[in-house]
Write a structure and sequence with these properties.
Bound molecules: NADPH dihydro-nicotinamide-adenine-dinucleotide phosphate
Order of helices and strands: HHHHEEEHEHEHHEHEEHHEHEHEHEHHHH
Strand order of the largest sheet: 9-8-7-6-10-11-12
Number of strands: 12
Shape: globular
Radius of gyration: 21 Å
Number of helices: 18
Strand content: 5-15%
Oligomer: single chain
Length: 451
């Protein structure tokens, strides 16, 4: 049995109830087959076996009291996966679907993504099955404080620096940071995604979405193309989707779709200008549903269908797809429909939004396909820049941070492309990103001996 098959079999046996984690391990390990052949020293040091086992898995109870005075219990997680190249770093997700498998897949992906940024950050992820939807402001605050009342003992500016993710934006980071600051009596860069007034970085809210579009632009440029006049399908309507929409518009694209967990809207005139402002106010301030966009602007709305279902069912033509909602949102069938409807570029704003079948369809049809760990690395890259600014006790301008973000995204694109070529898979960004991200971490692990 090949090494990779052996490792996958071991993960399957050890973690039989973790399908998302297994999916991520299979994708990465299949890409690393050639590195195992070229680097027997990695094999000897057990690097491949060690890298699929988290350094530490923390699971804790989060008790809190709702507005009716009733006690509620949620489960909290922090997976400190690998700190070979820097302090643990990765987002916190609040969503009812959160479980150990999803936390481990995200933490595992984060190792390679963080390495690709070239900044010194290890991989981690955390979260809770708490659902912020429908909760009052006070309930969200109480929950965030309760969550941090346990998490604080596991994190620190040189140990582990969490950030936001699904269900965790500026508001939640503020509550968690405030509680940490109070109980530790320390104002340090222990979380990123903070408000600008208390240590946050300009461009951090924009970074993941902007970065995904910068990455897509780099891929398009390899074929002499750009965003001008291209029809762009975006899913989600949260942090990543909003700023992917803004940047795609700025670069001359026409964004025609958005969704939330309730509905998809299609606006073939383009979602731009005042319409973008409306979406941001709707989602960030009023926390309403995307259907309201259709009510206001008279566009089409499909209740219960994803963006990718709608593209397939309606035969909607798109050039570029930027999935920004959640894992496994594009399956093989919808990937085939995207190809049929003219799509030639997919940049993953979300983490693992394409199923393995969908990835196969994109690659077999020679689409430009940028996997999440490369295309959405802009968020953690600017989080890394937020950590640098906190350490230096200074803040950089929008232009400075945006310039660094663009440079990092170009660097990730180049490193992924070069690694794909060096290991015999030219143009395969999945293999390239996995290999480029892995090499630095593997070399560091090798240097430390068996720890
Ligand atoms: P948000 O919570 O801000 O937004 C998520 C959006 O996706 C919402 O519109 C949400 O709908 C929608 N959504 C979530 N789950 C589903 C579902 N099952 N079906 C349909 N729609 C769904 O999260 P982010 O924008 O921060 O994150 C989106 C993705 O990007 C995630 O995969 C995340 O891991 C990834 N990512 C985020 C980074 C960041 O910096 N924030 C960094 C790198 C990756 P609703 O409004 O109804 O909840």
């Amino acid at each position: 049995m090949s090494l990779v098959k052996e490792i996958i079999a071991k993960v399957k046996q050890r973690d039989p109830n973790e399908p998302e984690f297994r999916q991520a391990v299979i994708e990465v390990m299949e890409s690393l087959e050639t590195t195992a052949d070229k680097h027997p020293e990695f094999l000897k040091a057990g690097i491949f076996e060690r890298i699929v086992e988290p350094d530490r898995t923390i699971i804790f109870r989060v008790p809190w009291v709702d507005d009716k005075g009733e006690v509620r219990i949620n489960r909290g997680f922090r997976i400190q996966f690998n700190n070979a190249i820097g302090p643990y770093k990765g987002g916190i997700r609040f969503h009812p679907s959160v479980n150990l498998s999803i936390m481990k897949f995200l933490g595992f992906e984060q190792i390679f993504k963080n390495s690709l940024t070239t900044l010194p950050m290890g991989g981690a992820k955390g979260g809770s099955d708490f659902d912020p939807k429908g909760k009052s402001e006070e309930e969200v605050m109480r929950f965030c404080h309760a969550f941090m009342s346990e998490l604080f003992r596991h994190i620190g500016p040189d140990t582990d620096v969490p950030a936001g993710d699904i269900g965790v934006g500026g508001r939640e980071i503020g509550y968690m940071f405030g509680y940490y600051k109070k109980i530790m009596n320390e104002h340090t860069g222990v979380l990123t995604g903070k408000g600008f007034d208390y240590g946050g970085s300009l461009i951090r809210p924009e970074a993941t979405g902007y970065g995904a579009v910068y990455f897509a632009a780099e891929m398009l440029a390899t074929r002499g193309l750009d965003f001008t006049g291209k029809t762009v399908a975006i899913s989600g309507s949260g942090n990543v989707a909003q700023f992917a929409m803004e940047k795609a518009n700025q670069l001359g694209g026409k964004v025609v779709t958005l969704c939330d967990s309730h509905a998809t809207i299609v606006d073939e005139e383009g979602i731009c200008g005042d319409k973008c402002d409306f979406v941001m106010e709707l989602k960030n301030v009023r926390r309403g549903r995307i259907k309201e966009y259709a009510d206001k602007f008279g566009s089409v709305c499909y209740l219960g269908d994803s963006v990718w279902d709608v593209i397939r069912q309606q035969g909607l033509r798109v050039d570029v797809a930027i999935p920004c909602a959640t894992q496994n949102e594009i399956d093989g069938k919808n990937a085939e429909a995207l190809v049929k409807n003219g799509c030639f570029c997919v940049a993953e704003g979300a983490n693992m939004p394409s199923t393995p079948e969908a990835v196969r369809v994109f690659q077999e049809n020679n689409l430009l396909f940028g996997p999440g760990k490369a295309a959405n690395a802009g968020g953690v890259a600017v989080s890394g820049l937020e950590m640098s600014q906190n350490s230096l006790k200074m803040s950089w301008t929008r232009e400075e941070v945006d310039g660094l973000l663009l440079k990092i995204m170009k660097g990730i694109h180049k490193a992924s492309l070069e690694a794909s070529e060096a290991y015999g898979k030219k143009g395969d960004y999945v293999a390239g990103a996995n290999i480029a991200g892995f090499m630095k971490v593997a070399k560091a692990m090798l240097a430390y001996g068996i720890v």
